[in-house]
Specification:
Two copies of one chain form a homodimer. In chain A, helix 4 runs parallel beside helix 5. Chain A contains eight helices and six strands. Chain A is α/β, with parallel strands linked by helices.
């Protein structure tokens, strides 16, 4: 029989890493935080080379952060975007970030979302996705990005979600290369 | 600041619902369980009209079950497939169900997977996906299935994943219609 509960333990540094008191005014600052989270996750050896964060679009207030926890948590779905979106929904107490009374939110991620995360972003109700590295950069070190096509972006845009990127691409790609150089696990290649 | 942990509480009936001692030899039995889980979730009012289960392909041994928990858990990613795959990985102690020493696994679901769940299935390492209702059936009651195209299935198949369905479609569709008739929440329509 299976348990009644799934527990996802984030590394203790994660919640303490970002400055929660400042605001993140633009893509440069928002994707910059996502890339810094990705780098920290590699340096500390607590997961894959990906980071993400959720912000209130207008104010730039930070709502939640996430990093890739696939290997340490033994859960292939714990991409950085999934962790950040789950935390954001937990903090807002809503299964949609587009819920009544909530301001528009956006997702910033250190790398272009894979097929699963593009779907997760769509269901989360974020109004915008901004990313650092391009999917080719992830593929260059062996990570598959899944079935994402130009038509996938058209579909997401048609539902009112803006997509911006790549932003700070060289810096984002450098984190992926750092992970590969250190022999990080490329799961399900 | 955000918490260090995400806890996903499944409804207490979930783990107790299936017969863990029998085997599920074919699509009919496997998708049948997924549909029964979906129906139970609607009848008990514990989430959306979707169920899923993970099996060892050859033996038909049941490994894990899941139901849609989006609304009760306030988490837009908790589709039935995601819950079942996370439970299966927890039970096998592996971030991939295609890991060394593990037999091939397959995912049975009461309804054709959305874009997020198709990606999640790909990353989970299952060797096969079997589904009950078709995506049109979910759309008929207002659920969006996201950017899934014929090319998405080609992509997934090219990575060695078989796809079978629809199976027991009328029965699966009846669960969706039951949910709609009872005024169930259609989130992010």
């Amino acid at each position: 029989m299976q348990p009644d509960r799934i527990r996802i333990d984030c590394p203790p540094w994660l919640a303490r890493f970002p400055d929660w008191d400042r605001t993140y005014p633009d893509d440069d600052a928002r994707v910059g935080l996502a890339i810094a989270l990705a780098r920290e996750n590699v340096v500390r050896g607590t997961g894959g080379p990906f980071g993400a964060a959720v912000f209130e679009s207008a104010t730039g207030r930070l709502v939640a952060v996430g990093v890739n926890l696939v290997v340490p948590c033994k859960n292939s779905m714990l991409h950085a975007e999934v962790v950040a979106l789950a935390m954001a929904e937990h903090r807002t107490g809503s299964f949609t970030l587009a819920g009544p009374g909530l301001p528009p939110h956006e997702l910033a991620t250190s790398c272009e979302p894979c097929a699963m995360c593009l779907g997760a972003a769509l269901w989360s109700g974020v109004a915008r996705i901004a990313f650092g590295a391009a999917r080719e950069d992830a593929r260059a070190i062996g990570f598959d990005e899944g079935p994402v096509f130009p038509a996938s972006y058209d579909y997401v845009r048609a539902r009112g979600i803006e997509i911006g990127g790549p932003v700070r691409r060289a810096e984002a790609r450098a984190v992926l290369e750092l992970y590969a150089r250190h022999g990080g696990i490329i799961y399900n290649p």
